[in-house]
Amino acid sequence: MTILEEAQGFLDALARRDLESASRYVDHDLIAIGLALRPLRGAQAWRESVAAFWYAFPDLETERLTLTAHGDEVTLVERVRGTHTGELHTAGLAPVPSTRHRIDVGPNTVVFRFAEGRVVRIHARIRRLQFAWQLGLWPLAWAVLRAPFLREKR
């Protein structure tokens, strides 16, 4: 199986909201930068983050704009849309109550590094200010600007 096929299997499982199947592609020691305001360390932290986002945005849709492979990395450019109807719990922030606002955020770039068929690192560049603005969360936008992960190197 090529790295691109592995990435497609992983993303297809996420699109189906099949966290169990998606987790089979994730290394136990995964490091994910950019999915929350602080890095997520370990597969369990990643699973909790994904589940929390799906809970907060039950109608979330991800549109894959491009998916390319180079070496051991796969780059996804995507757009996400959904309605914030559930409380959002994310690493680095207090829970955000439902705003009932619709989001349309992107394009976002997510780079997945694979080793032995598993995702070992995720580096996401999400349009957080756009996200916070669409939810009407100016304090969140300020926190995003000050977040230490923005200064981390890939």
Core attributes:
single chain, 34% strand, 154 residues, Nuclear Transport Factor 2, Chain: A, 5 helices, alpha+beta
In brief, what are we looking at here?
Helix content is 32%, strand content 34%. With 154 residues, the protein is an alpha+beta fold.
List the helices and strands and how they pair.
Elements: H1 3-15, H2 19-23, E1 26-33, E2 40-41, H3 43-56, E3 61-70, E4 73-83, E5 102-115, E6 118-125, H4 128-135, H5 138-146
Parallel strand pairs: 1-6
Antiparallel strand pairs: 1-2, 3-4, 4-5, 5-6
Helix pairs in contact: 4-5
Within the largest sheet, what's the order of strands? 2-1-6-5-4-3
Which percent band covers the strand fraction? Answer: 25-35%
The pLDDT mean sits at 90
User: How many helices in DSSP terms?
Assistant: 5
As for the CATH topology, it is Nuclear Transport Factor 2, Chain: A
* DSSP, total strands: 6
User: Which structural class should the secondary elements be placed in?
Assistant: alpha+beta
